[in-house]
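ok so i was messing around last nite and threw this chain in just to see what happens. nothing serious, just curious
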Amino acid sequence: MDLELRQLRCLVAIVDEGTFTDAAHSLGVSQAAVSRTLASLENALGVRLLRRTSREVAPTATGLRVVAHARRVLAEVEELVGEATSGPARLRIGYAWAALGRHTLPFQRRWSTAHPDTELHLVRSNSPTAGLLEGSCDLAVVRRAVDVRRFDSVIVGLERRLCALSSEDPLARRRSLRLAELAGRTLLIDRRTGTATPDLWPPDGRPETEETHDVDDWLTVIATGRCIGLTADSTAHQYRRPGIAYRPVRDAEPVAVRLAWWRDDPHPAAPAVVELLTALYRAG
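result:
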């Protein structure tokens, strides 16, 4: 069965306008064309959609359901066209847990000043590609390497690695920590998007792990003191919580912050974003 958008538009126009004549005027076609198009839709579906009398046109019970679906389809098509044609007028940057930490607000402000014609949206998407693979963003801030067959990426900065722990934990009284001091704790990790893994420790001194898939759950569990977490510096800036203390881990490698995009469909604004983010991270 092949349905056409013109058939759905015709049906909705008839219902909205109330008569075939008014629908024809709204669509810019003849009344005969409206009748033929509706007939072809009813034939394709095998059901009667409208009751026609000398005074009015009204949807049947089935017609009401079809009209409701038709409105949704047409709205989604309009949104699809807008997505495809908006081009550089809009820029969506995805991130999984924390966007850019202390650089987030300066980035937003500088972008709006330097590129007023390209509207910036930051989109949280807790997936390994921060929404790129799902199509919810044009560029993504990621802190793990991406699939080089599909995506290009560039490192725009480095962030120190912090330990998140309960503010009542004895280690919270320390100014900084070492990995060996954390080996006996339970590490709460997100295998999909997180940067913390037991591989940060030597094979004979790795902590036990538990898993989570959401930063709010991660913080809630850590606040109880049952687990600790290792995270990039940006998390501490974006998620300051009562009951949570963040302490630098002196001997842990920093986290590389990457900007990624589809290899075969880069957003025109990608070079400008790379330049601005690199400058922000370089400034510290």
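not much to say yet. The mean pLDDT is 92.
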